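Q: Mind making up any chain with C-alpha cells?
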Amino acid sequence: MASIRLILRTAQVDQSGHSPLYIRLTKDRRTSYLSAGVKLKGSEWNGAKQKVTKKHPNSVKINASLSQKIADAEGQIADMERKIKTVSISKLKEAIIGKRVPNFFEYAYAHCEKMKGSVSFGTYRSYTVYIRKFQTYLGKREVYFDDITVTLLKNYLAFMGNQLNNGPSTQRYSVMILAIIFKDAIKEDIIPQHLYPFDKLTLRKNAQRRYFLNKEQIYALTNLDLKQAKRADLWRDLFLFSTYAGGLRFSDVIELKYGNYNPNEQRIKKVIRKTGRLHQFKMGKVASDILSKYLKNDAEPDDYIFPIITDKKSYNSSEEFRYNTSSKENHYANFQLNRMGRMLKLPFSLSFHLSRHSFATNALNNGMRIEHVSKLMDHQDIRTTQIYAKIINEELDKAVENFIY
C-alpha cells in the first residue's frame, strides 16, 4: 500500500527564504516526489499537522487546496492498486500527476524534433545524444520534470566523472543540454520556474590549452616518410593546406569546389559552413601548390577539389548524410594525423583542428597584424583571436625564463 505525505524541501530555499512543498509518494520502500505547486517559509509550515500555519496570509485557502490534492491523490492510488496489484510507483505518480507535470523525456525528444529544421543536424544530433545519455543513466523513461533534482544531477555528474571518465567539459555540456530543455519548457509554460534545479550546480570548466605546430614541426611533418600509410599523403596535404590557407576548418576544406577557387588570383571565396558567412582571401604559394596537385582540367565548377566526397548528390541534398560523411572522414584524418604525430614524437595528439591553431600562432609570430589574422580565420570577435596572442606571450615568457635561469 502506497502512502502520501507533504514535505517542505528546506534544502531548496530560494533567495527570498521560500522552499517548495512536495507531495511525497512512498511504495515498497521506494520514494518519489511531486510538486504541490506551493512555496513557503519554514515558519509557515507545520510538518506534524501537515498544515500551513496561520502566519501565512492565505493559510486557509492553501490548506483547503492541499487537502483536495491529497484526497485526489489517495483516490487515484486506491483506484490504481485495485485495478493493478503490482502497480509501480512510477505508474502511481503518472496517475496522480495527470497532465500537471509532464514526462521529461517525452517533452525533450518532441522538442528536439520541433527544433530539427531550425538548427544544424550536428546540433540536433548532439541534443538527442546527450538526452539519451541521461536516460541511459536513469535506466528508465518514466521520469518527470520534478524528479530531476539538484541531488540527482550531482549524482549524474559524479557518475560521468567516476564511471564514464568524462572530463569537466563533457560533464558541463551534458548537463547544459538538460538545462536548456528545462528553460524552454518554462518559456512554453509547461512547467513552473521553481522546478528549475540547475541554479545550485557548479559546473567546472577545463583549463583549455591550444596546441599547435611550430615552424620546425611543420617542416618535419612536410618531409615525413609516409610510404606505408594508406591515404596518409592526402590527409597530410589537407592539414598543411589548412595551416597555410587561413586555418580553414575540416568541413570547409573537403567542401572546397572549383567554383570557390580563382587560380589567376590564387583566391578562395566560399560560404563558411559554421558561420554561414561569405569568406574570401588570397592564398600563399605553399597552399596554392598543394591545391594544384589535385586540380583536374575537365572539372565542373560544382565539383569538389579534394577527393574526399564521393557521393556528391547525397552530400549536397541531405544534411544528415553531409554530417555523417564529414564526421567519418574527420575521424579517418585524425587517426592518420595522430599516427604522424607519434612518428614525430610530438608532446600532444595531432588532430586536424590543430592546423587552425598552427596557422594563427605562426602568422602572429611572423608579425601579421592580429586584425588580419582574425579576418583570415573568420572570427566574429577579435577577442577569440587574442587567445592565440596570449599563447605566444606565454611561450615568449617561458623562453626568457629558460634563457635567464
